[in-house]
Amino acid sequence: MDVLDERQNGEPPMEIDEVVSVMDHEAFAAKHMPDLGHDVKDFQVFTWRLSNWKKLDKKLTSPERILLFPFGNSNAPPNDTVSVYLDYAEPKKAPEGWHACAQFALVISNIHDPTVYTVSHAHHRFIAEECDWGFTRFSELRKLFSIQDGHRRPTIEEDSADITVYVRVLEDPTGVLWHNFVKHAVYQIPTEDDHPTESVALALQRVFYHLQTSDQPVGTTELTKSFGWKSLDSFLQHDVQEFNRVLQDKLESKMKSTKAEGAIAKLFVGKMKSYIKCVNVDYESSRIEEFNDIQLNVKDMKNLYESFKDYVAVEMLEGENKYQAEGFGLQDAKKGIIFQSFPPVLHLQLKRFEYDIQRDAMVKINDRHEFPFEIDLDEFLDSSADRSQPWVYKLHGVLVHSGDLHGGHYFALIKPDSETRWLKFDDDRVTPVTDKEVLEENYGGEILNGMPPSLQRNQVRAMKRFTNAYMLVYIRESVINEVLASFTEEDTPTHLKRRLDEERLQMEAKKKEREEQHLFLTAKVITDETFSKHEGFDLASFDEKNWPPSDLPSFRVLKQETYTTFKSRVAQHFNFPESQIRLWVLVNRQNKTVRPDAHIPENEPALTVEVIRNNMAARQNDLRLYLDVITDPTKPDPPPQSIMIFLKHFDTSKQTLYGVGKTYMLRTSKVGDLVAIINERMRWTPGTPLKLFEEIKPGMIELMKPKLSFAQSEIQDGDVICFQVDLPDKEIHDLEAQGLYHNPVQYYDFLQNRVMLIFRPKFEEPDHDHPEFNLVLSKKQNYDTMSVKAGEFLRHDPIKLRFTTTHATNGSAKAVLKRSLNQSIAEIMAPTYINPTTTVILYEKLDVSIVELETKRSLKVIWTGIHNKEEATHPFLLPKTSSVHDLTDHLAKCVTLTAGGTGKIRIFEISKDGKTQKEFTGSEMIGNIPDPVELYAEEIPQEELEADDSDKVISVFHFHTQLVRTHGIPFKFVLKRGEKFADTKKRLQARIGVSDKDLAKYRFALIQVSTFKQPSYIEDDDTIYEHQFAPEDALGLDHLDKSGKTRAGAGEKAIVIRG
User: Fold this and answer.
1) 3-state SS string over 54-104?
2) pTM of the predicted model as reported, rounded to 2 decimal places
């Protein structure tokens, strides 16, 4: 059952004291069912009287499909509440794509006085998969039986009550996910040759098309896969503002050199000017920057207007803080930001997440913050701005976050165009909402809906406190019709429409196949050819725990199809005349084997496939068959008193066990009579001595006595006999010396315990020198055997291979296997929480033996060169007594240093917060460096080495938006006395090696860690040398992280879109 008590679009039940009768349908509906702004297709009211309430069944359904749990359902406290729902009658019989959008009110009222009632209302899009909707906690039972304030009677009186349902069926509203302007632009990106899980553009095109044409919720799995996200990434809470920026960057790059080039900037990019203007002299320093969104303060701000006023607030530079104006000396000045233009679509991020000094942590700001449907931004524009059209913006999107810093849920409220009502997009559910639900319910704060606390239930109030707007989307009124232009199917690229229509037809065919599955069964056919390729027990693998099933020819057969028709299909498929084949049914024997039991009778042509399955293989869902090819069609039946026996050959030289067909033997003939038949079939010299074994079941393979008859040996139709050439003692000894099997009993034991291990390189992507490969081993074998076989495959000395187990959930490294323990494969695989056939082992090809590693330390150093960029990773294996100086010397031989540079290298770690380097002195022993460790190295720049006492060497780090979200590699930088930041910035650009275009997207901030101050962003005319740097103070580079790498302890993982 779906619960509305805690949902946005269902109101909590409240006792109502206004004198409105349940019987006055028009007045009651007007009061309790607010107008949702959609055309009403139908309106109905039904009443259901119930008596003997306390003796009612636990669940009742009225003829009008009111679903009642008089004492609560399983999701509510028993005997404490009433649960009531509106239910659709027969969802399974609903036509394809059936849905109904309904607004409804459920009422329980007094049978004598219809003005005494309890009511709840909601709206819901009913579909076949979600056919009931209502209230798990409609009301407390005790309240219904007692007289409430303002009434003279209880709702349930004389153990009776009326239950009434008011239903409005509405025209079904639909909506769009994103602006149609963007959709047009995205559709113009060429994607004919792309794959949807690898191309963001194609995946987004497909989402847009499905949203246009489908009446069902549209999945986004394909889209998130195109980002390069794994399944876990999709479930992590990401910052929506960062995601929006990264996605826009990705689309902008995809649109280059296409008709859509520039569309993102045209739609989403505005300009702002940062300035310092002197008060008493005519001097101004300014810088113009582009922006994709604006981050507005919420704390201590009453509404959006105040947030904008705060954003452009002017700071006076006076007194001791006067501004050094070039050519004018120290001057009083005004410092601030003014907008030059706003984009057509304006994204406003409300800063709900901030650093709390007292808690020393990021917290969510849940304060009340109001925003309007319309706002005029003219007063926040520079006097030089173009005012030919008003700068009035209309609200068209509200992104809401419900939860706290560490988790929660996003949903969106969208007004798709000027005419359509506001819609709520919550995962797969789209519902219309009222203006109140758009604004009031998402302002934040602790008061719910403006209701007095006496009518608020604690549970709902607590939840609402953490539900508030996080991002607002406003569209300029003068361009709304252009941005949200109507869109038709004809606007869709032809290749996309053709591709998706073909997929739709395939999906419909598969769906039809699933729906009709109960009419069919699957027949799997074993042939002599499949038997000859089968290495395992029985004639094929079906349900083995440690091994995949055999790939057998399969037929989808109507259960009512006659055997004659089915046999004709099989004969045609395998290219045999019908008279030349006979089909045997395989059955599950009591000893857990699967063997042919009897052939299907040919003299009953009216037999159906289902009857054959039920009568001859009752314990199976599918039909498993053996195709018996008749050599002499004039003798269609097996010889009288004969047994059909299957033969397998264990080849000691190849260490294989494969089927070699079947033969018919008289029950009275001797087991030894098989020897001559086998020698002839295998084309061996007549008289070659053989040993014969019966494959009774796994774990029971017995040597047969040649002088006994088949009847005496209890051989029956479908039994398997394995043979091998009888070996002299010397060959047996040689095989044992090589660790090979010399008889089928041993080999069958291997088959019973075999598992497949997948080997992957630990640090490299799989390639020719470091391939991914599989080995089939017995769980009884050990580490040494595994390493030898892996060494043979890799052509690498086994003693120089090191193996690491993995976590079953994500394949990451778990623990290095110790050779000295020589564990069994079963121990290496344990505990087996997943199918053991998927066990992954990571390997390293070492230059030294793993025995040597006991006295040596393996380290990897990430080289960042002279420009603060990860260039390569270099592995080292050095004696544990080596110093970091020694490590530096070895690294110097692996990297290319700048010509004419210092020739000096610094090795360092990065602090947990990602803000500073932890430099080594050089004398530390590498064996004493704690494990695990991530080491970095860089070339020390010339200006740092040459810095004198008048220079300041400071720490610089990368972050994005919030200080806790550091990325990249921190570095050291020299500040020069008296240098304006415009010049400092040029040296910084040279230090980190970025282009002018990329640098334009950077913002630079002074970070004072010890005083917990917010970042102080720097202007070109500032001289940051003059700041009194504390040891922890640093320069922060605020820019988007495109690497996807964050430091440990830096909070969330940066968002990266790769497709």
Assistant:
1) HHCCCCEECCCCEEEECCCCCCCCCCCEEEEEEECCCHHHCCCCCEEEEEE
2) 0.50
The first and second tokens of residue 511, run together, are: 């769906």
How far does Cα 145 stand from its chain's mean position?
A: 49
Residues near 618 by beta carbon (within 8 Å), at least 6 away in sequence:
none
Rounded Cα–Cα distance for residues 352 and 824 (Å):
55
Query: What H or E segment, with its residue span, contains residue 243?
Result: helix 240-255
Which residues are bridge partners to 459 per DSSP?
A: none
Mean pLDDT, to the nearest integer, of 324-335?
87
CA distance 139 to 1023: 67
Residues 1055, 227: Cα–Cα separation, whole Å: 9
Which residue, chain included where needed, has tokens 């009709």? 516
- Classify burial at 715, counting beta carbons within 10 Å of its beta carbon; exposed 0-12, middle 13-18, buried 19 or more: buried
Rounded to an integer, what distance in angstroms lies between the CA atom of residue 472 and that of residue 902? 52
d(CA 884, CA 1009): 30
On the question of a cis peptide bond just before residue 932, with omega within 30 degrees of 0, the verdict is yes
**Encoded amino acid at 545, one letter:** K
Q: How far is CA 322 from CA 6, 278, 279, 334, 1014, in A?
A: 55, 10, 11, 10, 21
Q: Do residues 217 and 199 make contact, with C-beta atoms less than 8 angstroms apart? A: no
What is the Cα gyration radius of the chain?
Answer: 39
Q: Are 141 and 16 in contact (CB under 8 A)?
A: no
Q: Is 914 helix (H, G, I), strand (E, B) or coil?
A: coil
CB 1007 within 8 A of CB 962: no
Sheet holding 623-629, edge to edge: 554-558, 520-526, 623-629, 581-588, 594-599
- Under the banding of pLDDT at 50, 70 and 90, the label for residue 488 is low
Taking each helix axis as running N to C, give the angle between helix 200-213 and helix 240-255, from 0 to 180 degrees, rounded to the nearest 10. 110
263's CB contacts (< 8 A; 6+ apart) are 181, 182, 184, 185, 188, 255
Put residue 52 in one of left, alpha, beta given phi > 0 → left and psi -120 to 50 → alpha: left
Structure-block tokens of residue 178: 């994103």
Q: How confident is the model over 294-315, as pLDDT tens digits?
A: 888 888 899 999 999 999 998 8
Alpha-carbon span 485 to 479, nearest angstrom:
10
Q: pLDDT tens, 946-966?
A: 888 888 899 999 988 777 778
673, two tokens: 């009579």
Q: How many CB atoms lie within 10 A of CB 187?
A: 20
Helix (H, G, I), strand (E, B) or coil at 9: coil
Alpha helix segments (H runs only) across 478-590: 480-483, 494-515, 528-532, 563-574
663 Cβ neighbours under 8 A, 6+ residues apart: 644, 645, 647, 674, 677, 681
Question: How many Å apart are CA 860 and CA 143, to the nearest integer?
Answer: 70
User: Under a CB-based contact definition with an 8 Å cutoff, are residues 573 and 579 in contact?
Assistant: no
**How many Cβ atoms sit within 10 Å of the Cβ of residue 565?**
13
CA distance 120 to 1011: 52
Cα within 13 Å of Cα(575), Cβ side: 0
Averaged pLDDT, 539-545: 85
Q: Which of 637, 563, 636 minimizes the C-alpha distance to 605?
A: 563
Q: Strand ranges (DSSP E) for 601-728?
A: 623-629, 642-651, 656-666, 690-697, 700-703, 720-725
Backbone φ/ψ region at 715: left (φ over 0), alpha (ψ -120 to 50), beta: beta
Alpha helices per DSSP H over 901-994 = 942-945, 981-992
pLDDT value, residue 356: 60
Residue 329, helix vs strand vs coil = strand
Return the residue matching tokens 């992104």. 399
For residues 40 and 168, the answer to whether their CB atoms sit within 8 Å is: yes
